[in-house]
Amino acid sequence: MIITIFTECVLQKGLGHITRCANMSSYYLSLGYKVRFLVRGDGDFKDSLEDLLKQEDFFLLPCAWDESKDIEFLKSDISIVDSYKLNLENFSLLIDASKVVLALDDLGNFERFKEKIYILDLGGLYKKDSKVFGGLEYFPLNPCFKNLNLTKKYDLLICFGGEDTNDLSFKSLEIAKEYFKSICVVLGSAYKGKLKSANTKAKLFYSLTQKELAVLINQSSLVLLPSSSLALESLACKAKTIVIKTASNQKALFKTLSTLGVKTASLKDLETKLKLTNFDVPKKPLCIGASLESLLYDLLLKALNLAIKTSKSKLFTLENMQAKPFSDLDDKDIALTLEYRNHPFVRKHMYEDNLISMKTHLNFIHAQRDNLSSRYFLVSDKTRHLGVTSLTRINLKHKNAYLGIYKNPYLKNHLGSKLLDMICFIAKELGLYMLFLEVIEDNLSAIRLYEKYGFKRMGKLEAAFYQEASFKNVLIYGIGIN
After folding, report:
1. What is the dihedral of CA 426, 34, 293, 108, to 10 degrees?
2. Is the pLDDT reported for residue 36 higher than 80?
3. By the 8 A CB rule, do 450 and 349 touch?
4. E strands present in 18-111
5. Are 215 and 208 in contact (CB under 8 A)?
6. Would residue 162 be called left, alpha or beta, if left means φ above 0 and alpha means ψ between -120 and 50 degrees?
7. Pairs from 354-362 (Cβ < 8 Å, separation ≥ 24)
8. Is the sign of the CA dihedral 381, 384, 386, 388 positive or negative?
9. Dist. CA 1–CA 430, nearest whole Å
10. CB–CB of 217/148 below 8 Å?
11. Predicted confidence band of residue 366 (pLDDT cuts 50, 70, 90)
12. Is residue 11 very low, low, confident or very high in pLDDT (cuts 50, 70, 90)?
């Protein structure tokens, strides 16, 4: 399972896209998935990814991905796109190359594609539906932004990020220095305003990491920010915050924050607002980012389910063996698998040891086409059927499943290890991590097979199996496959 981030770092725009994509990458990395992080643009961003670059499953690639027409290069299970610049023709290729696409949008760039992709609506531009997610609860927030209960070091923190084209950093400092003794100002690497050369008593910081900014917010009694991701990060720290709308795509967030009781201002009335600092942070919990992991996990399930559906008709090959899905069996094989299943040698170790009718068997095979929680395979070599293997209770979130095997009852060979080889191979191909099985406690030959293969006993279900007028215990075994 590959997750690919398609984003940008443009010198004039700051690090907003990089940081929110980094936050989403961290979630998938924590689940054990590989993340490709593709960045276009001329900005300097690597310091912001310092922690991610230490992880072996994180792959950074600065490149003009928006110009690529190579569908193999664009191919991904989950593609997350966060970019103002959009080549519509190439974006269609990206959609075709991906199982699932999530686009972060605060400009309306993805309107024409909304039927084919999922949209994280950061600009309040779309009507919410099953494919559009918006609101503070979906904001990609770094966990470092929280109340750290630090001693206050600065009376006021000013941070407008990026190039700060209108030099609000300087203008707001000129107003604020009349009312605050200790002021710090955070400037972006692209800042070219007057503070570059001004003689000021304010403490200047340049290009802070998210962790450094979180500490600075917690050390400040009051924070002045634009109505962007910076405002949400400050509010997540439960800092006393004043928000200014600095760009047209901040309109929806500015209105939302004002409605929730966050103090807002414009440059014209900033002096008045700075004089009246005796206000509280919003008492109602803002739940910033609370639903994002749920959304990212849902996308993962959609991608995994599509992968499983795609592989429903896949013939798995291992050495000289082939495993054919039950959903692809022809009439002859359907009849033979029913005959194997109803054989006394096989039935006596089944939970359901009754004879199965052809009608029930056919219904079961038909249901396999759409059943994403179980997979059954007929395993053969070049000349004969070896037996049946299965994965049931497939849990995509926790990457595990329960296996089942039974050999062709008409063969005298010991084939258990071969069937286990095949089902472990299939499970690994499907991205699973652990396999479990249940075996009746008196089935000693099967227990010997599993323990010799490497399965470890993990528990016991007391009196879980009723057979021949008595209750029997069931043992649980497990093995790691990845």
Report:
1. -110
2. yes
3. no
4. 34-40, 58-62, 76-82, 98-105
5. no
6. left
7. 361/334, 361/337, 362/334
8. positive
9. 9
10. no
11. confident
12. low
**Other beta carbons less than 10 A from residue 352's beta carbon:** 7
DSSP state of 164: -
> In the structure encoding, which two tokens stand for residue 194, read together?
């007057």
Contact by Cβ (8 Å): 140, 133: no
Q: Across the beta sheet with 58-62, what order do the strands follow?
A: 58-62, 34-40, 2-8, 76-82, 98-105, 118-121, 132-134
What count of residues does the chain have? 482
pTM: 0.68
- Let me know the angle formed at the C-alpha of 47 by 231 and 207, rounded to the nearest 5 degrees: 45
Q: In this structure, are residues 432 and 374 in contact, taking their beta carbons and an 8 Å threshold?
A: no
> CB within 8 A of 258, min separation 6: which ones?
243, 264
Q: What is the pLDDT of residues 382-434, one digit of tens each?
A: 899 999 999 999 887 788 999 999 999 999 888 899 999 999 999 998 888 99
From residue 73, how far is each of 67, 118, 323 by CA, in Å? 11, 21, 30
100 in the Ramachandran plot: left (φ > 0), alpha (ψ -120 to 50) or beta? beta
The H or E element spanning position 239 is none
Q: Distances in Å between the alpha carbon of 45 and those of 5, 13, 62?
A: 15, 12, 10
Question: Could you give the CA distance from residue 384 to residue 401 in angstroms, rounded to a whole number?
Answer: 27
Q: Which residues contact 76 (CB under 8 A, 6 or more apart)?
A: 2, 3, 4, 36, 97, 98, 99
SS3 assignment, position 183: strand
Which band of pLDDT confidence, cut at 50, 70 and 90, is reported for residue 311?
low
Q: Across the beta sheet with 434-440, what order do the strands follow?
A: 316-318, 321-325, 375-380, 385-395, 400-407, 434-440, 470-480, 456-467
Instruction: For 144-155, give one letter per residue: b (16+ CB within 10 A) or e.
Output: bbeeeeeeeebb
Q: What is the pLDDT of residues 196-244, one digit of tens each?
A: 888 888 999 987 888 999 999 999 999 999 888 889 999 999 999 999 9
- Look at residues 195, 152, 154 and name the one whose alpha carbon lies nearest to residue 172: 195
